[in-house]
Specification:
single chain, alpha/beta, Aminopeptidase, about 20% strand, binds D-tryptophan, binds calcium ion, binds zinc ion, signal, protease, metalloexopeptidase activity, M28_SGAP-like, aminopeptidase
């Protein structure tokens, strides 16, 4: 869903005020100072995100039906993203690691410019389970992060902070790629990361709207975005320790993100406020072969793609 112009600028104003009032490591404006006018986040075209999902579906179909760690489908997924980002002016690097006897890869993409001592990262795991294409889990997060990065390039966004985007390998084997990345970051580099935003399952077919409750400033940013849409959210707790924000959090990096639900069942109270079907899983194709492009709620994907842009713009100025 697009924010109406007034909704989006009102939401941007909320972020500006939040930026003034918060005193966390992320915010540079101190109370009482006049923060410069912040650029409002652009709308992320959900049609573009869906086009990336179709590509990932085609890749899985052409490679044995999945995009799992160590397979041609995974490497083709990474090459697809890397090609788009190289063409868009990002500085990309492929980080190789081995897990369960197979070679895995992380893709890191830096947007040139910004303060190198203040890095805002957004990431998603790119691998699927071997049982299926992994479109909601987690081509949804991968595609939305990709389209946000491409929008940074398309708009030639020049943030104060440095932007870095990441797609992780072997998350399904136990957060292997993201853990390898954090473990191999020198402490000085790790301390430059002022926020890591994680997006893992953001288009569930029977969606809920959950916000990670780890770092208060990042949590407040996502909640103000949803407040602008008049959508109430719930804290995301079920995923604690279960996705790629965990190695960053354990290393002391402020983390956050949004999530639309996995195999848990939507309650009637949740269906009342969010719509959808009570008594049914948020994603009944979780880790199943039916996790295809048909397993996506477009409204949730659109809202959360725009939430990513809202947070990236809001936290990087
Ligand atoms: N997407 C899941 C990991 C995950 C993230 N949040 C939750 C909440 C409940 C269950 C699982 C998860 C995966 O990659 O398997
Ligand atoms: Ca949108
Ligand atoms: Zn999974
Ligand atoms: Zn996942």
């Amino acid at each position: 869903m697009r924010l109406s112009v007034s909704g989006r600028s009102a939401a941007a104003a909320v972020v500006a005020v939040a930026g003034l009032l918060t005193t966390s490591a992320i915010s540079t404006a101190s109370a009482g100072t006049t923060a410069p006018t912040r650029a409002a986040a652009p709308d992320i075209p959900v049609a573009n995100v869906k086009a990336h999902l179709s590509q990932f579906q085609s890749i899985a179909s052409a490679n044995g039906g999945n995009r799992a760690h160590g397979t041609a489908g995974y490497r083709a997924s990474l090459d697809y993203i890397k090609g788009k980002l190289d063409a868009a002016g990002f500085t990309t690097s492929v980080q190789q690691f081995t897990s369960s006897g197979r070679v895995g890869y992380n893709l890191i993409a830096d947007w040139p410019g910004g303060d190198p001592n203040q890095v805002i990262m957004a990431g998603a795991h790119l691998d699927s389970v071997s049982r299926g294409a992994g479109i909601n889990d987690n081509a949804s997060g991968s595609a939305a992060v990709l389209e946000t990065a491409l929008t940074v390039s398309r708009t030639q966004y020049k943030p104060t902070k440095h932007l870095r985007f990441a797609w992780w390998g072997a998350e399904e084997l136990g957060l292997v790629g993201s853990s390898y990345h954090v473990r191999n970051l020198p402490a000085a580099e790790r301390s430059k990361i002022k926020g890591y935003l994680n997006f893992d399952m953001i288009g569930s077919p029977n969606p809920g709207y959950f916000v990670y409750d780890d770092d208060p400033t990042i949590e407040r940013t996502f909640k103000s975005y949803y407040a602008g849409l008049n959508i109430s959210t719930e804290p995301e707790r079920e995923g604690d320790g279960r996705s790629d924000h965990t190695p960053f959090k354990n290393a002391g990096v402020p983390v956050g993100g949004v999530f639309t639900g996995a195999s848990s069942t939507k309650t009637s109270a949740q269906a009342q406020k969010w719509g959808g079907t009570a008594g049914q899983a948020f994603d009944r194709c979780y880790h199943s072969s039916c996790d295809t492009t048909a397993n996506i709620n477009n409204t949730a994907l659109d809202r959360n793609s725009d939430a990513i842009a809202y947070a990236v713009w809001g936290l990087s100025q």
